[in-house]
Amino acid sequence: MPIKDEDHRPVKASPDESDLGFNIEETNESIIITFKGKKYTISKTGGAGGETPETGATIAFTKASIEVKVGDKGKIEYTLNPATTDATGIVWKSSREDIVKVGPDGSYEALLAGNADITAMLGSSVAKLTITVTESSDPGALKKVDFKLTLVKNYATTAVVSATPPDNEMPYILLILQEEIYDQYGKERIHEDWIKKGWIDEQKENWKSLIPVFQYRGTKEEDIRGSGATVDPGAKYVAYVYGCDDDGNQTTEVQELRFTLRDITKVPGLTFDIRIKEYTPDGPIVEITPSDDSREYIVNILDKNSWESWAKDGTRELELIGIEIANFPSTFKTKGKTTYAPGFQYDSIKTKLKWKDYVLIVYGYDEENGVNTEFELRDIPKGGVAPTTTEK
């Protein structure tokens, strides 16, 4: 588009016309043209374009550079001319957000050692300064860094948390604990007291040898079971992360993400027709027909005394046991009509049946809701013979 003078006549610029005071500057956001002592700004980023007369407001920093320590917070000092200029129009930027984070009001927080260039723009007026961040004067002080912690999955049977460090080469520890346990130790002592005492009681003298098991670099996803915590639907958890050196020594403050695990939810529409076709010395041959072929369900055979003991603690305890059973190697997960027989879907229980009564359990299950139906049971008497009472 043409550049016009104050009489709105097109301006032709040439090297010989320097007496007109003609100059062009370019920033990331705009093109600034000076002509006959006046400035005009053409935006690169929005609007309809065209010449925007300079408002005359300027911003200047009181210092060209400042030096701070890791963890320091403050506000960058600046002056506006005229002093009554609205400061909300200032656009702040940091060249290294991982080193110095700058807010919309000019506040800053030093995160890591290094240099960051801070830019403040007010129209066409630009102010710059460099913030140099050095390590804390306290050699034992922990650095504050920003990990990106995200809850990527929250089911009744597990939760998955993703961690991304500010530097992909930074080693770090990521774990998930029940909130009451985490708060018992406190995040200021979590490194020594929980890792050393809670995780590895049997190896207190050599506990750091296990650090590589939990030490990561780059983006990592961790689930509750992988951390060794108990799955308790509806309970509160804390995912926590901190930087460390290669030997596992903590180097940054602990950063945490608190969440409540989704609770168990019953899903209507699934029942079972369970028929024991034959009692054999190795275990029963069972035919199971679900009312919905699209839904997964669990089949297993357990010690009857154990099941009855759990049942005394109520339905909630059985549901928690049901989640654990779903992860047993011996558990059979399936959909649709199936035959459950010894030597095929499960190992022979001939030896066990000589001494104990057992029970067949069947229930609906999915990762998102957990135990989603009532439990259905069939007795398997000691010796593998048919029960004396009529089966329902």
Structure characterization notes:
The protein has 392 residues and is mainly beta. It contains seven helices and 28 strands. A hairpin with an 8-residue loop joins strand 3 (38-43) and strand 4. Mean pLDDT is 82; it is low at 14-19, 46-54, 188-194 and 196-203.
Q: Provide the residue-averaged pLDDT.
A: 82
Radius of gyration: 34 Å
Count of helical regions: 7
What structural class do the secondary elements suggest?
Answer: mainly beta
**What about the largest sheet?**
5 strands, antiparallel
**Structure summary, number of beta strands:** 28
**Silhouette:** elongated
Whole-Å distance between the termini?
Answer: 88 Å
Share in helix? 10-25%
Unreliable stretches: 14-19, 46-54, 188-194, 196-203
What amount of the residues lies in strands? 35-45%
